[in-house]
């Protein structure tokens, strides 16, 4: 009897040690991902702020030159910046999750879904304009739609809001609304929510993207060349595709497997990959969109000229005095005459 009891105690001790070791591994992984994303998040945050400055400056100074691309990229940048703001809730509490009420977590998850879906649909909107903008045989009603990029962006936002409400209904707040617990953005015991999130947020936008690529190539022979000239669109779409594919694979995978500490850490890494994709997209918009890139270059040049101008003025205001001895005709008599040179 004592032997059986000792065996049970030893097994319990082994399980406790194993669980403790796995918990430490999970915390180390989540913390490392946290530090890595902090760099990307700071870069994306700074890029977003400068993009707003650039778009506001371009619209104010050259409103007539404001194009459909500027309108869509401006709203798209707002969506990606919103995703980065939501990521602060994860960044500030890792390796653990944020503690909040079930209602607060449901609102945060709803906001996250709205931002992600709007960003994905705005990428399809970019391809829609590229596919039909140069087609002269399109119907008059479709041409009116193409002439109103701002209304198209608003329409996409409304569709995204409706889809996010559907996901919110499937997710639902768990338990009492005022109970406090860990808040994971896409945590839900319902498999239907995770599958619906995968279809709405990833599969549907990519199906639309592939369809528009086929239509654009079929209706316009120069469609691929126009894509090469506007490299920002395929680049942003590819970054979003791979980062969100990584995230949604882990999201769907957790449906059929128990959530262990290490799996939670891997889900945190997947979240940071998705957030990092938004940061990279903002940097790409800043660098590949010509008006924003020119504004950045002009700002850097102005700062450099300002620094150089201050250095030049400080040298003029504080001249250096150099005293040298020169020999004149009295040198033969052993006399030297000091000469003062003012060197600005």
Automatic annotation (TrEMBL):
Q: Which domain of life is it from?
A: Eukaryota
Keywords assigned by UniProt? Membrane, Transmembrane, Transmembrane helix
Indicate whether Repeat appears among the record's keywords: no
**Which regions span the lipid bilayer?**
37-55, 67-88, 108-130, 150-170, 198-219, 231-249, 269-288
Name the UniProt record assigns to this protein: G-protein coupled receptors family 1 profile domain-containing protein
State the organism of origin. Paramormyrops kingsleyae
